[in-house]
Write a structure and sequence with these properties.
Elements: E1 2-6, H1 11-21, E2 28-33, H2 38-48, E3 52-55, H3 58-70, E4 76-79, H4 81-89, E5 95-98, H5 106-114, E6 118-121, H6 124-141, E7 144-147, H7 150-158, E8 161-162, E9 165-166, E10 171-178, H8 196-200, H9 209-217, H10 219-232, E11 239-243, E12 249-255, E13 260-264, H11 270-278, H12 292-295, H13 309-320, H14 324-340, H15 348-359, H16 368-397
Parallel strand pairs: 1-2, 1-5, 2-3, 3-4, 5-6, 6-7, 10-11
Antiparallel strand pairs: 8-9, 10-12, 12-13
Helix pairs in contact: 1-11, 2-3, 4-5, 5-6, 6-10, 6-14, 9-14, 10-13, 14-15, 14-16, 15-16
Bound molecules: nicotinamide-adenine-dinucleotide and magnesium ion.
Magnesium ion binds at residues 149-151, 224.
C-alpha cells in the first residue's frame, strides 16, 4: 500500500513512520510533508526514500533540495498547498495519514477524502471545522475514513462495523475517555500562572504543543466531542466525557442491552496508527503488551466543568452546530499560540474563545470557502481579543 504522510515531522508523523518501517513488505511511502523542520524532513527522506517531499515555500524547497542532493537522495521536492493536495490525490496513493495540526490540515485532508482514499484522520480540527461538508464528501467519494485519535479509534473498534461504516442501531451512549491533563488536581488559583512548559507536560502522552495545551484546557476533549458526533452520527447528549487519569481505557460504547464495550491498551499512538494502516487486518505496532497486573487499578470520575471552561464552550458549539465549531476552533488556535508565545495567561484562553464566539455572527457554511471565511473572521477577532489582554497586562504591570 502506498502511503502519504501529511505532517511527517510531527508526533503522529514520526509514530506513523515507525509503524511503516516495521512492515516494508506491506507499505511504500509515496510522500512526506512538513512545515518548518526541513533538516528533520531531509533525514526522513534519506531514510525512507519517498517519491515526493512537500514543504510550504520556495526557500524551504531550495534548502531541502540541497540537503537531499548532498546525500544522493532522489526524492523530488515540491512546495505549496497545491502540491500538498497533489500528493494526496495522486492515483498511485492508497492511504493518506492526515497529521497536520490545526486548520492548515483542512484543504489537503479534504482533497484526500474527495479522491476516495483511505484517510487516517488525526487532524481532528478539519472535521470540527467542516463536519457536515466533510462527512458528505466521505459518503460521496466512498473514502474509507479511519479515526486515529485514540478515543475515536477505540469507539470505532467497539462498534460493530459493516465494511467500515459503523452501525448505530442499539448504541445508547459513547463514553469518551479523558485523562484530565496535567492540571486535573492543580489548585484553581494556581492555573493563571502555569507556564507553557507545564501545560505541555502531559502525564501520559507525548504530543505536539498545540494538542498538549488543548489537553490541559480540555478543549481537546471538547473538539473530540464534536469529532465523535460527526464520525459516529450521534448527538452531543449521547457523548459523555469520563475522566480516566490512567489513559488505559481509550473509550467505551454502551448498548441498549446494558453492555459496555471498551478498548484498552498502553497510551501509545502507534496502536491506532497500525490499526488504521492495516484495517481490517491487525499488524505489529511496536507497542509493548499492556501489563494489566501492573496497572492494577483503573479510576473514573466526572469532569469538573468549573476547572475546564473550554470544555463547556465546546459543548455549546457542538449543540449549536453551523459555524460555531469553526469559530471555536479558530479562536482556540489563536489563543493557544498566544499562550505558547507568553502573551496571555493559560486561564485567558477560554476568555478569548468565548469572546470570539460571542462576536462572530453564526451562519450555516455551505462550502469549504464559507468555512475558510468563518475561520479567517474568527481568527481576526481572536487576535484583537488577545491584543486587548496584552494591553491590560501592560497597564497592570505599570
Ligand atoms: P505536531 O505539532 O507534533 O506536528 C504537526 C505536523 O504538522 C508537523 O509535521 C508540522 O510540520 C505540520 N504542520 C504544522 N503547521 C503546518 C502548516 N501550516 N502547513 C503544513 N504543515 C504543517 O502535532 P501532532 O501532535 O503530531 O498532532 C497532529 C494532529 O494529530 C493534530 O491535529 C492533533 O490534534 C492530532 N492528534 C495528535 C495526537 C498525538 O498523540 N500527538 C493524538 C491525537 C490526535
Ligand atoms: Mg484524543
Amino acid at each position: 500500500m502506498k502511503v502519504t504522510i501529511l505532517g511527517a515531522t510531527g508526533s503522529i508523523g514520526v509514530s506513523t513512520l515507525d509503524v511503516l518501517a516495521r512492515h516494508p513488505d506491506r507499505f511504500d511511502i509515496f510522500a512526506l510533508t512538513a512545515n518548518s523542520r526541513v533538516a528533520q524532513l531531509a533525514s526522513q527522506c534519506i531514510r525512507h526514500r519517498p517519491v515526493y517531499a512537500v514543504v510550504p515555500g520556495e526557500a524551504a524547497a531550495n534548502e531541502l533540495t540541497g540537503l537531499l542532493r548532498d546525500a544522493g537522495c532522489s526524492t523530488r521536492v515540491l512546495a505549496g498547498e497545491r502540491s500538498l493536495c497533489d500528493v494526496c490525490t495522486d492515483p498511485e496513493v492508497e492511504a493518506v495519514m492526515a497529521a497536520i495540526v490545526g486548520a492548515a490540515g483542512l484543504v489537503p485532508t479534504m482533497a484526500a477524502v474527495k479522491a476516495g482514499k483511505r484517510v487516517l484522520l488525526a487532524n481532528k480540527e478539519s472535521l470540527v471545522m467542516a463536519g457536515p461538508l466533510f462527512m458528505a464528501a466521505v459518503a460521496e467519494s466512498e473514502a474509507l475514513l479511519l479515526p486515529i485519535d485514540s478515543e475515536h479509534n477505540a469507539i470505532f473498534q467497539c462498534l460493530p462495523d459493516s465494511h467500515g461504516r459503523p452501525l448505530r442501531d442499539g448504541v445508547k451512549k459513547i463514553l469518551l475517555s479523558a485523562s484530565g491533563g496535567p492540571f486535573r488536581t492543580t489548585p484553581l488559583a494556581e492555573l493563571a500562572s502555569v507556564t507553557p512548559a507545564e501545560a505541555c507536560a502531559h502525564p501520559n502522552w507525548r504530543m505536539g504543543q498545540k494538542i498538549s495545551v488543548d489537553s490541559a484546557t480540555m478543549m481537546n476533549k471538547g473538539l473530540e466531542i464534536i469529532e465523535a458526533c460527526h464520525l459516529f452520527a450521534v448527538d452531543q447528549q449521547q457523548v459523555e466525557v469520563v475522566i480516566h487519569p490512567e489513559s488505559i481505557v481509550h473509550s467505551m460504547v454502551e448498548y441498549a442491552d446494558g453492555s459496555i464495550l471498551a478498548q484498552l491498551g498502553n497510551p501509545d499512538m502507534r496502536t491506532p496508527i497500525a490499526f488504521g494502516l492495516a484495517w481490517p487486518d491487525r499488524i505489529d505496532s511496536g507497542v509493548p503488551s499492556l501489563d494489566i497486573m501492573a496497572v492494577a487499578r483503573l479510576n473514573f470520575e466526572a469532569p469538573d466543568l468549573e476547572r475546564f471552561p473550554c470544555l463547556v464552550l465546546a459543548m455549546e458549539a457542538a449543540r449549536a452546530g453551523g459555524s460555531a465549531p469553526a469559530i471555536l476552533n479558530a479562536a482556540n488556535e489563536v489563543a493557544v499560540a498566544a499562550f505558547l508565545e507568553g502573551k496571555i495567561a493559560f486561564t485567558a484562553i477560554a476568555g478569548v474563545v468565548a469572546g470570539a464566539m460571542d462576536c462572530v455572527e453564526p451562519t450555516e457554511p455551505r462550502s469549504l470557502e464559507d468555512v475558510q471565511a468563518i475561520d479567517l473572521e474568527a481568527r481576526n477577532i481572536a487576535n484583537n481579543l488577545v491584543q486587548v489582554r496584552v494591553g491590560e497586562q501592560q497597564v497592570q504591570m505599570r
